[in-house]
């Protein structure tokens, strides 16, 4: 135990005495740093932050919050745009010091502690030519991403991260520790694969590994914005029957303001295609050639590179600092009218830094049945995400309104299923959660009743316990 100040001892002495890690209180020097999350719009002031060193610490913190009726937030990588990793006047169970990663003796899976980032995982697995489907920005946390989906560069070949969750070590709402897998607590294992942080704190994930790299072919081509409607149509048609190795996205964004680019291109809005071939790089180069010649590109940065480098390549564009409001929606298809609306709305982004991206899903993702995991329906092949990004608080309202209007305008092409890892500020509430889980929602309510009847884990796409089941002990 390392107590940071007298105040921490006075206000949370029983917990501080139990922890092997740190208890950080408001008047401790590290408090402001510890309460900060990736989205700088979020400015919450927890009563204390328990920076846990191990699963026992996590259990002690969860019990402490329950005994005192303190609101509870759980922090993995702190990357959730809605800022659910922190809470005003409550206790943060912070796993950011629990980042161990090791490959299983079998070589088929990797064990990842609950506060690890994707950089921590890739560092261990990529040099061996292995990967589990994870985030495309290395500083994103494994935990939040892995519990609500997980859309990677290898998604069409290997499925989502939830599809690769073999087992999880979990601290439940009453502080008990269990393992969830196909054999142990299978209902919890099912719920964790898409149900988010609703059911407990995962202290360790076991994720399936796949052959990948060390080198991969990466698609990264920018075309003039004026060609956006045509490029997106041609891309849609070209990838409709693409092999599973190919996962791509169509996007509208602005080229970075960096010296490596010719002056005329810096900051220029463009339509782009990005993605990766999860297989032989030479084959990937051949398979994507047509996508790089749809019209004269502004710049084509497609190349065969180390997977590890690719996984870090977006980091400079997604640093903590700006203000963010993101929303995502699965589209039933990507018809011409949806493309035109996407292009038209993207052209009037209030901020040049805002990214509008349509990910091609399908492949292995769609071959998993809706009832097989809590994630639910996977029939949609297209996910639209509006990643609004700006710098000045004075622009908050206009950027949030823009994102919401865009999202609403896309609803006619969707059955309303949202992607919970890009959640805005979770303001849609229960109805959106219910709609997105569809037929799985009722089962999730029952499992919630069994594992977290008092809804201690509620800073998420919240599922409420079915009243009749309350108190049932799993
Ligand atoms: C720059 C950036 C890039 C991204 N790229 C991708 C991507 O490529 N693919 C993709 O699918 N998503 C991506 N995301 C979205 C990402 O999946 C979510 O933001 C996710 O919530 C991040 O997880 P985290 O652990 O960092 O989040 P945190 O903010 O720490 O936690 C979010 C929530 O997850 C739950 N949680 C966290 N840790 C635990 C735990 N140990 N046990 C139980 N519950 C826990 C809690 O409910 C918590 O409120 C990206 C996000 C950002 C900001």
UniProtKB/TrEMBL annotation:
**Pfam families tied to this protein:** BBE (PF08031), FAD_binding_4 (PF01565)
SUPFAM superfamilies assigned to the protein according to its UniProt record, in alphabetical order: FAD-binding/transporter-associated domain-like (SSF56176), FAD-linked oxidases, C-terminal domain (SSF55103)
State its cofactor.
FAD
Query: Which PANTHER family does this one have?
Result: BINDING OXIDOREDUCTASE, PUTATIVE (AFU_ORTHOLOGUE AFUA_1G17690)-RELATED, FAD-BINDING PCMH-TYPE DOMAIN-CONTAINING PROTEIN
* Entry's Gene Ontology molecular function annotations: FAD binding; oxidoreductase activity
Question: What does the sequence similarity comment in the record state about its family?
Answer: Belongs to the oxygen-dependent FAD-linked oxidoreductase family.
Domain annotation FAD-binding PCMH-type: ranges? 42-212
**What is the protein's given name?**
FAD/FMN-containing dehydrogenase
Keywords attached to this Swiss-Prot or TrEMBL record, sorted alphabetically, are: FAD, Flavoprotein, Oxidoreductase
| Organism name | Conexibacter arvalis
């Amino acid at each position: 135990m390392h107590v940071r100040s007298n105040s921490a001892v006075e206000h949370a002495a029983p917990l501080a005495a139990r922890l092997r890690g740190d208890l950080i209180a408001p008047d401790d020097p590290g408090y402001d740093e510890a309460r900060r999350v990736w989205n700088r719009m979020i400015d919450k002031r927890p009563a204390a932050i328990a920076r846990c060193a191990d699963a026992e610490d996590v259990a002690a913190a969860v019990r402490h919050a329950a005994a005192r009726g303190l609101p509870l937030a759980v922090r993995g990588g702190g990357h959730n745009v809605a800022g659910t990793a922190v809470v005003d006047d409550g206790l943060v169970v912070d796993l950011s010091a629990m980042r161990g990663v090791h490959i299983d003796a079998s070589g088929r899976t990797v064990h990842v502690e609950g506060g690890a980032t994707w950089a921590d995982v890739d560092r261990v697995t990529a040099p061996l030519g292995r990967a589990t489907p994870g985030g495309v920005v290395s500083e994103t946390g494994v935990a939040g991403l892995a519990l609500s989906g997980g859309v990677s560069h290898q998604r069409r070949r290997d499925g989502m991260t939830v599809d690769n969750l073999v087992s999880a070590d979990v601290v439940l709402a009453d502080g008990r520790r269990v393992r969830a897998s196909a054999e142990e607590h299978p209902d919890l294992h099912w719920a964790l694969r898409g149900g988010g942080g609703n059911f407990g704190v995962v202290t360790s994930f076991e994720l399936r590994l796949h052959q990948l790299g060390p080198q991969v072919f990466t698609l990264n081509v920018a075309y003039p914005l004026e060609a956006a409607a045509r490029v997106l149509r041609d891309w849609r048609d070209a990838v409709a029957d693409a092999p599973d190795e190919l996962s791509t996205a169509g996007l509208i964004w602005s080229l970075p303001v960096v010296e490596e680019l010719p002056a005329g291109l810096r900051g220029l809005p463009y339509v782009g295609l990005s993605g990766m071939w999860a297989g032989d790089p030479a084959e990937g180069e051949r398979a994507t050639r047509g996508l790089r010649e749809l019209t004269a590109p502004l710049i084509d940065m497609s190349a065969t590179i180390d997977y590890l480098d690719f996984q870090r390549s977006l980091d400079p564009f997604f640093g903590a600092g700006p203000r963010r409001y993101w929303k995502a929606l699965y589209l039933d298809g990507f018809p011409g009218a949806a493309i035109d609306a996407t292009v038209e709305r993207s052209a009037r982004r209030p901020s040049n830094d805002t990214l509008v991206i349509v990910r091609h899903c399908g492949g292995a993702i769609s071959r998993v049945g809706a009832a097989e995991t809590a994630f639910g329906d996977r029939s949609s092949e297209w996910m639209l995400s509006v990643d609004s990004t700006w710098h000045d608080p004075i622009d908050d309202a206009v950027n949030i309104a823009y994102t919401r209007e865009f999202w609403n305008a896309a609803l006619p092409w969707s059955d309303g299923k949202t992607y919970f890892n890009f959640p805005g500020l979770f303001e849609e509430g229960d109805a959106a959660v219910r709609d997105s889980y569809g037929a799985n929602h009722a089962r999730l309510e029952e499992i919630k009743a069994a594992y977290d009847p008092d809804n201690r884990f509620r800073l998420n796409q919240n599922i409420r316990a079915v009243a009749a089941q309350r108190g049932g002990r799993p």
